[in-house]
Design a protein that fits this description.
With 390 residues, the chain is α+β, with helices and mostly antiparallel strands. It has twelve helices and eleven strands.
Length: 390
């Protein structure tokens, strides 16, 4: 792992920011689990990276050789985020552990299919400036812990916070993101830190699972959908969750609680949400190569069949096998291009025990979300916090 220098600040009341090595312990003990990959040196200019992005987004016609080269450029740019991503994870974990007894962490490099989809969806997006190629995630118990963690990033000139709790996305997504910018050996780079409560994470998981099984893209503010009722359902559920833990309501959802829950109940019944999500969960076959407790990196291949069944292949990699994991991912992604409904992701987590907690969408696990739907539809949701519609 290359040495990495980061500017950190412990909050508004802390001493001025200082330079530290990424492997210092600025806030106490940090677990020694490593990241997803061994980092590489950036080989291409931003102009070459953006040209590759245009080819991958199908905005320009290209030969097979040009597309193969574009893939090579994209993958090098993606892998160059590995060391900064690990550095961001170390600080995130250290800080989160000062305010929570049971945080869950995950890191991942953005999948090839997700990069392509984002470039196609956002015409002005440049691959060299995509801010979430490297991502770290922490799941906390409640908004109190989320707000405490965000205070530790306050005043840091390198951290830009986007608050999707105060102003949820049109899709219904809620959470807080920190885009961390810094200079590394590979030039200026950005890493996205996702900070979510367990409730917010359950919503995001359910959207991913539903998108997979219904062959739709429901998590975007400009969804590609076959049944718009699902889009409306998740927007309403986002507002219902805001009633439980505070924050703004999703735009264009009823501001009156009774009307909101009534419409939600009607859609949940029409779509048979609880029934079909439970079926997706039980109809997903999980095949794991081994359950070695020393493994922290996992290659996941998910394939959905006939909108009901799915198979998940999980391959575990121990410390020292990061290069093998990278090589295997390249092979699996190449194979996935010729298959329908296949997703390939390489992720890093604290342990195999937290794999399903950090990335339940790959295992079709919507248990927590279904429980929240049942609570809302049965009228058991608590009195709303002070909120403002946005």
């Amino acid at each position: 792992m290359a040495t990495f220098i980061e500017t950190i600040s412990s909050g508004q009341d802390a001493p001025p920011a200082r330079l530290i090595r990424w492997d210092e312990n600025p806030h106490g003990p940090v677990s020694e689990w490593m990241g997803v990959l061994v980092g590489v040196t950036k080989k291409y200019t931003n102009g070459e990276i953006d040209k590759a992005g245009k080819i991958l987004s199908s905005l320009t016609s290209a030969t097979k050789e040009q597309e193969a080269h574009a893939m090579e450029v994209m993958d090098n740019w993606r892998l160059s985020h590995a060391d900064p991503m690990e550095a961001a994870r170390v600080v995130l974990e250290a800080r989160a552990k000062t305010i929570s007894q049971c945080p869950t962490f995950g890191i991942r490099l953005k999948t090839e299919s997700s990069i392509r989809a984002k470039l196609q969806r956002e015409a002005k997006m440049q691959l060299s400036n995509m801010q979430d190629i490297g991502g770290c995630r922490v799941i906390l118990r409640d908004m109190g812990e989320v707000d405490e963690l965000l205070k530790l990033y306050a005043g840091d000139p390198n951290a830009k916070v986007t608050d999707y709790v105060k102003a949820p996305r049109v899709s219904g997504y809620r959470g807080k993101h920190i885009i961390y910018s810094f200079d590394s050996g590979n030039g200026k780079m950005k890493i996205e830190l996702q900070v979510r409560t367990e409730l917010q994470h359950s919503w995001a998981t359910a959207v991913e699972v539903c998108s997979t099984f219904t062959d739709q893209n429901l998590k975007s503010d400009h969804p590609i959908c076959k049944d718009e009722r699902w889009v409306r359902f998740f927007a309403l559920m986002g507002s219902a969750m805001a009633l439980s833990e505070g924050g703004g309501l999703v735009r264009e959802t009823p501001p009156i609680k009774a009307r909101l829950l009534s419409e939600l109940r009607e859609l949940a019944t029409a779509l048979k949400v609880t029934e079909i999500m439970k079926r997706w969960n039980t109809a997903t076959e999980i095949i794991s190569s081994k359950s070695d407790t020393r493994a922290h990196n996992f290659l996941i291949e998910l394939q959905a069949f006939d909108h009901i069944r799915a198979r998940v292949n999980v391959t575990a990699y121990e410390k020292g096998q990061e290069q093998k994991a990278a090589a295997d991912r390249v092979v699996r992604e190449a194979e996935a291009r010729s298959k329908m409904g296949v997703q390939v992701a390489l992720v890093g987590v604290q342990s195999i025990d937290t794999l399903n907690t950090a990335y339940p969408n790959y295992f079709s696990d919507t248990t927590r979300f279904v429980k929240e739907v049942e609570i809302a539809c049965n009228g058991l949701i608590g009195s709303p916090f002070p909120i403002s519609t946005v």
